[in-house]
Description:
The chain is α+β, with helices and mostly antiparallel strands. It has four helices and 15 strands. It has helices spanning 7-30, 37-50, 123-141, 149-162, and strands at residues 54-55, 73-77, 80-82, 96-105, 108-117, 166-167, 173-175, 182-186, 203-206, 209-211, 217-219, 225-227, 233-235, 238-243, 246-249.
Amino acid sequence: MNNLKTKSEIEIMAEGGKILAQVxxxxxxxxxxxxxxxxxxxxxxxxxxxxxxxxxxxxxxxGGADKPYSASICTSVNEVVVHGLPTKYKLKSGDVLKIDLxxxxxxxxxxxxxxxxxxxxxxxxxxxISATKKALELAIENCQLGKTLGDVGFIINxxxxxxxxxxxxxxxxxxxxxxxxxxxxxxxxxREGVGPKIVPGMVLAIEPMLSAGDAEIVQLExxxxxxxxxxxxxxxxxxxxxxxxxxYILTK
Length: 252
């Protein structure tokens, strides 16, 4: 398996993960009615740099993108699932905000995301957020030695369906380390016992993304992705290292 990390490399990534988790949690607290997305982005860059790290997304140009990303975080509202560019839009009561961010620390990347309900959200939005968070927890619990990434995707999809939500198609998690995106791909649906074996040294960015409606996505003009039917979406993500003792959440 390529891209396996040593114990010392995982500990460096844990340092970056701690910085990232602190910034993520601060942004989640600051995300309130009347706050603009660009204000959250500016705060994120300030906090990341003050901690001695570098915003991972700023200037990043993934495959297929027309231009480098111009912000430190992704802020995706309501039907927008991922890669939403921070703007002057001010959050309103009822919004469902996904905040996705990463840092580069001592040559290693970590990646995380959280979904925040703004003000008074609908019962459906509350259930969707809770289910997506639980799907991530179950996925991490299933990152046990000897299991496969198919097992991880299977449990995410099984739980989503049990809650009457759908796994969003075409978007996945990924390996992470010296590069922001590495192999293996971490699918949010799969078959038990199928796919790469989970072994010590893997570091995975696991990120369930669920929809309250259509599982299909469309790409918008700003290169973000939204649900095809404009239904609500949610996303949670942790960077997780696989050790001899099982999963170790680096961004907790």
